[in-house]
Amino acid sequence: MKILCAPDSFKESMTAGEAASALAEGVRRVFPEAQCVEVPMADGGEGFTVSLAEALNAELVKVPVVDAFGADARGEIAATKDLAVFEIASAVGIGMVEEKDRRIRQMSSAGVGMLLRAALDRGVSEILIGLGGSGTNDGGAGMLRALGVTFLDAAGNELNGSPEEMENLESVDVSKLDRRVFDVNIRIACDVDNPLIGPKGASAIFGPQKGASEEDVEFLDSVLERLATVSGKEDYIEMEGAGAAGGLGFALVAFLGGKLERGIDVVVDTVELRKHAEGCDFVFTGEGGIDEQTLMGKTPAGVANVAKEFGIPVIAFAGKLGKGADVLLEHGFDAIEPIVQRVSTLEECLRDGKKNLADAAERTCRILKIGANM
């Protein structure tokens, strides 16, 4: 028997690699001779870097960066000889700033530029960027400035890239942009299709959760529009995904030539999931929470889609089953198994996650064994 174990991380309980190992452990309790193919997965959100590092046996490297307010911080890159992977949240993540301190007009994405520069320094040919969890809304101006772009006001004074200063933007100088960005393939894991500005844009949709008031939203939108117009990048304003990560989607494509792709598609391609799926009898996947939103580009749905290309049954494991989870059974999933079997506190569930997942995989395999013997 050959089983592909391809889960996402179970937030605050186990990484995707640990989850894959737990699934394999449960399988081998019932089928000791089974071949378990462990492929940690992600969808571009939290855990993107670590999951791909585990899947690719890549080196995890700490990188000196600045946070959204310019304070020293430590970002993280996963790197192989030819590939670098990072998520912007390791530099400017919304979780790095307490809610009471989120002054969105003063926050900059400069740390993302520092991560990108560190990736370029490694001499790779491809860079994968996860856009989830951003705490900024500067249209990527801070990132671009860290890469050499200069923003000037009417008096020729240099602007720091924050919305507060970019309100006064009059000219953009890209002559000192790090040209190495055009020598690499930049792939951007992005799961939103919002334009840069407008009622469905970065400021209106994502700004409030980053601390933006109604007045801030209007201000931020005008700043983003000014950035696109003054830089001559108006054609990208309505691009799907331009509003991702406070406009970083816009900057990465319009200035750096990056390509926006669905996060799960980037990961499926990078870890060669289809190759691993060939010849498998079952596919086990899962993540911390599964509900009707899982079908919207989340890891289990992406794994199930690949499995169905090969006609392989899919079983998903979840720390928590939410509203509408049963709808997954109509979209490529053959069974969904909750891993918690008794009344437990959240602390207990998180602490015992690996054991619970291995036990759930064991229970599932015992049922599969009965079916095989009928």
TrEMBL record:
Protein's name according to its UniProt entry: Glycerate kinase
InterPro entries: Glyc_kinase_flavodox-like_fold, Glycerate_kinase, Glycerate_kinase_RE-like, Glycerate_kinase_sf
Keyword annotations from UniProtKB, A to Z: Kinase, Transferase
GO biological process, one term: organic acid phosphorylation
Recorded superkingdom: Bacteria
PANTHER family per UniProt: GLYCERATE KINASE
NCBIfam families on file: glycerate kinase
Family to which the UniProt record says this protein belongs: Belongs to the glycerate kinase type-1 family.
Protein's UniProt keywords contain Disulfide bond: no
Membrane-spanning intervals of the chain: none
GO MF, any single term: glycerate kinase activity
